[in-house]
Amino acid sequence: MTVCIVGWSHLPFGKHENEDVESLITRVAADAVADAGFAPCDVDAIFLGHFGGALSPQAFTSSLVLQASDDFRFKPATRVENACATGSAAVHQGADFLEARRGRVVLVVGVEKMTDLPGHLVGETLLTASYLKEESDIQGGFAGVFALIANQYYQRYGDQSDALAMIAAKNHRNGVDNPFAQIRKDLGYEFCRQVSDRNPIVAGPLKRTDCSLVSDGAAALVLTDVETALGRQKAVALRARAQVNDYLPMSRRDVTELEGCARAWGSALDSAKLAIDDLSLVETHDCFTIAELLEYEAMGLAAPGKGAEVIAEGVTARDGRLPVNPSGGLKAKGHPIGATGVSMHVLTSMQLRGEAGGMQVPGASLGGIFNMGGVAVANYVSILEPLR
Q: What angle do CA 9, 330, 187 make, to 5 degrees?
């Protein structure tokens, strides 16, 4: 335990008209530093999580953080990108900076502006995070990728449409109480289960309610060493963290078993000397409902093919044994790529501080985070606990 989160800022996710990447960054950067009780001149390094690509005409974005305050000028600033795990990659790089004792205060910002592009271009852009030599012809972007995974899982273990609808309904119900969520509406199981004009098939067995949202948004947090954190008003420690990367081509692995996810969880839990059931809550990467189902199995809540039992038995409900995505997850909150992992760390910190409002899991003392890029290619797990 050597790094702590001591302040944060979070914008609502959704469609931010008349804004760009720069304005979203500047709205959270200085606020997070102030929330931590520092001034911009105290910051030793900046890490910006930004997927970018065709989503943003401004490709070189690390120094846009300096637009938030002249006192950020001349600070080292680095843009980090690791597909949909970009936000957590930035958090972990900030932690690496501190653990190397190169400074004592790090600002991490995650941002994405996605809604300026038509939907089909967003899909094409995100598909560049797949292995294009073999997967570029998949129709429907990443929805098509996860539809293929869902079909393989169904062929092996049977139709899981009921379980996916339960996951979608759970996360939308949770999202009602998240002031940062893009959709704050309890859609209900029946709506999520049935194909309709308002809930059409997107790809394969996946309906609209099975797919995360195209979003704009930004979140930021401040990291310090433990000694510095002891002097802050609030401090949440990174008790353990792990990064595991797997092969990019899906053809080289069994994509119905997220082995990189499982190994990342195993490494982080072993480092923290914890079991999965010791956690109070988990924020996990439900880019599609089938992903959350597979992640139940990868994190050790169920044996392969038994993930549906976890949701059916209420294990991951907000009042269940291990609440999963009490924020509403990517499904309800939205998924602005570069901001997602930072948001997960902010919202989990709020839970552990008892500051999550209507989202609050009573007595939360340990929080787990899983953020992945691609189909469990880049896998990041963080385990958080209050410093005091």
A: 115
Tokens 């599609």, residue? 288
| Active site annotation includes 84 | yes
Split into its structural domains, the chain has a count of 1
> Active-site residue among 92, 172, 335, 345?
335
Domain containing 54: what range? 3-117+214-229
CATH number at residue 53: 3.40.47.10
- Give 54-102 pLDDT, tens digit per residue: 898 999 999 999 999 999 999 999 999 999 999 999 999 999 999 999 9
Instruction: Please indicate, yes or no, if residue 33 is contained in any of the structural domains.
Output: yes
Catalytic residue among 4, 10, 50, 84, which?
Answer: 84
Token reading at 102: 């190169």
Helix (H) / strand (E) element for 337: namely helix 337-352
Rounded-to-10 torsion of CA 257, 334, 111, 265? -30
pTM value surpassing 0.90: yes
pLDDT band at 1; cut points 50, 70, 90 = low
**How are the residues of the chain apportioned to helix, strand and coil, as percentages rounded to the nearest 5?**
40, 20, 40
Active site residue 335: yes
Residue 255 inside a domain? The answer is no
Specify whether the CB–CB gap between 34 and 272 falls below 8 A.
Answer: no
Residue 319 has pLDDT above 90, yes or no: yes
Structure tokens at 46: 């900046």
Length in residues, the chain = 388
The answer to whether residues 202 and 212 touch, using CB atoms and an 8 Å cutoff, is no
Query: Does 241 map to a domain?
Result: no
90 located within any domain = yes
Torsion 93-98-103-104 (CA) sign: positive
